[in-house]
Amino acid sequence: MQFVTYKDLRGFIKQVDELGALKRIEGADQKYELGGITEVAAGAPECPALLFDRIKGLAPGVRVFTNATTTPQRAALALGIDPDLKPLDALKVWMQRRQTLKPLKPVAVKDAAFMENSTTGRKADLSKLPAPHWHRKDGGPYIGSGSLVIMRDPDGGWINASIYRVQVHGKNRVTIQFDHPGRHGAIIAKKYWDKGQSCPVAVVNGQDPALFIAGFEYLPDGQSEYDFAGAIKGAPIEVMAGPVTGLPLPANAEIILEGELLPMSKLTLPEGPFGEFTGYYANDARPCPVMEVKAIHHRDNPILLGSPPMKPPRFHFGLPFRAASIWSNLETSGVTDVTGVWQHVAQLMTVVALKQRYAGHAKRAALIAAANSYMGRLVVVVDDDVDPSNLADVMWAVTTRCEPSEQIDIVRNAWSSGLDPRIPEDAKQAGVTSHSKAIIEAVRPFHLKDSYPPTSALTQEEAREIEAKWGGVIGGKAQKTKVSKRKRR
Ligand SMILES: Cc1cc2nc3c(=O)[nH]c(=O)nc-3n(C[C@H](O)[C@H](O)[C@H](O)COP(=O)(O)O)c2cc1C
Ligand SMILES: [Mn+2]
After folding, report:
1. What is the position in ligand 1's atom list of the atom closest to the CA of 178?
2. Contact 444, 452 (CB under 8 A)
3. Residue 370: its pLDDT value, please?
4. Which atom of ligand 1 approaches the CA of 185 most closely?
5. 321-457 has which fold?
6. 450-460 pLDDT, tens per residue?
7. Which residues belong to CATH 2.30.110.10 in the chain?
8. Residue 457 confidence (pLDDT)
9. Structure pTM?
10. Which bound ligand lies closest to the C-alpha atom of 145?
11. Separation between Cα atoms, residue 309 and residue 3, nearest integer Å
């Protein structure tokens, strides 16, 4: 089954435009202005996607596209899910579909749009391509903020295609940054380096959003993100072998760099600092592997997909995909009656909603969610009458159903990362990348469930019915809901 109807990034931009969610901007500066405009727009209630053209210092037609999938609506569109669904319903559709997706291998094609313009060797010059300074204290310009890095595992032959940031250091040099040595890209590169070889690599900029989403997924080693992107689309990714590396490259991508990632024993360059998705800088400049760019290919009037990290709640994806994974984890662990899972503050807070059936049910769900909440200090469980995607509702539950002395637990030494701004520098130096997580049971205590004061609020369904009937008068935005549609039948 084909889920999406866009073929490439251009096709997606057209669909965003048709939704009325695209703004075109001319004359902005790559130095701080593109990043600033992107961040301000992403903070607006109806955050538009932005297509920058006539960028200062670049030829007209060389464009940058940002805030691609930052709203629930556009994240749904990227997955081929009805963009008018309520965000939690859209996430549920994705969660369920993801469980049964069948990886689809890419197909080889003879012509690639990215070969419309191709330069190799000394003529390859990155300065003609966009590479914004996204945030004020960044250590340099980045061509790759949402770009895919392609490598082939020398043992298994499978292709890894994940997102790692790419800083530009000169006309034919970039660095590729792995957050930690467990990244597939880092593992693969090390296999070549250990044999004294450079690692063939390609950086794909301006790929379609299915590839962007696949590049963010935690897939097991050996499973290609290309196959997962094919599954998301319901149609295989079309690839052509890169002339320099032989790596399969998405034929309709906008800008592709081919070259070699040099062994770190041979050369490193200081990378960063770079503003992180927490809204902070995590490190000073650090030595990083260098890619020697041997060829640059790009379409006519190419479009860079830019996805700079920004201060939360802004995030690359308007649907919290990792909350969908946690939702699946809960279901496969046998936790019943989960009515929703969401993440707020750019994944740093996880909320589980459930219909309590037994004492300990809420805590059981919370512990599983906490175990799988990367960098999240707050895990909240709410009853099923609360919409976990609505932060105001969640805080209402926290302030009216949670007695802190009884319903908050602290789990110590749990999963965080070196990007965590609250872990002191000396602890990080000593290798500490864990933190503690607060589990907040914002549910009616199970034994008081039936005697708890009744709420005066409309149920979610009642509120939706009012919106459907009176939304035109009161200005509420009527969104489709799976629930009410089912009820009407
Ligand atoms: C916009 C964006 C930028 C990212 N930047 C980096 C990065 O610079 N370094 C990194 O290691 N991971 C980065 N990530 C996270 C990885 O892409 C993600 O964890 C992926 O699952 C890793 O894939 P792998 O298991 O194939 O290594 C980024 C993710 C997104 C969405
Ligand atoms: Mn991978």
Report:
1. 11
2. yes
3. 98
4. 27
5. UbiD C-terminal domain-like (3.40.1670)
6. 999 999 999 98
7. 9-305
8. 93
9. 0.95
10. 1
11. 28
- Ligand 1, from 162, 204, 372: best to mutate by most atoms within 8 Å of Cβ? 162
For strand 173-177 and strand 165-170, is the pairing parallel, antiparallel, or unpaired?
antiparallel
Instruction: Name the packing angle between helices 321-332 and 87-100 (round to 10°).
Output: 60
- What span, in angstroms and rounded, lies between the C-alpha atoms of 288 and 338? 43
Output the CA 221–ligand 1 centroid distance in Å: 14
What pLDDT, on a 0 to 100 scale, did the predictor assign at position 478? 58
- Residue whose entry in the numeric block shows the structure tokens 């770190």: 264
Side chain identity at residue 312, one-letter code = P
Determine the pLDDT at residue 484.
44
Name the 3-class secondary structure at 304: strand
Among 483, 484, 466, residue whose Cα is nearest residue 475: 466
CA distances in angstroms from 112 to 238, 332, 382, 439, listed in the order given: 9, 41, 50, 51
- Average pLDDT of the chain is 96
- Quickly tell me which residue has 């060389």 as its tokens: 62
User: Which residues' Cβ are closer than 6 Å to ligand 1?
Assistant: 146, 160, 162-165, 177-179, 183-185, 215-218, 307, 316
- 341 CB-near residues (< 8 Å, 6+ apart): 91, 95, 323, 324, 326, 327, 330, 350, 351, 352, 353, 369, 388
Rounded CA separation 423/426 (Å)? 8
Nearest ligand, CA 226 = 2
* pLDDT over 50 (residue 306): yes
User: Across residues 140-169, what is the average pLDDT?
Assistant: 98
Q: Return the ligand 1 atom nearest residue 179 CA.
A: 11
Atom 28 (ligand 1): residue with closest C-alpha? 163
Distance 235 CA to ligand 2 centre (A): 20
Q: Compute the distance between CA of residue 374 and CA of residue 171 in angstroms, rounded to an integer.
A: 36
For the chain, where do the domains classified as CATH 3.40.1670.10 start and end? 321-457
pLDDT cut 90: percent of the chain above it? 94
Please tell me the residue having the least CA distance from ligand 1 atom 26.
184
Cβ-based neighbours of 483, under 8 Å, separated by 6 or more: 89, 460, 461, 464
CATH code for residues 9-305? 2.30.110.10
For residue 169, what pLDDT is reported? 98
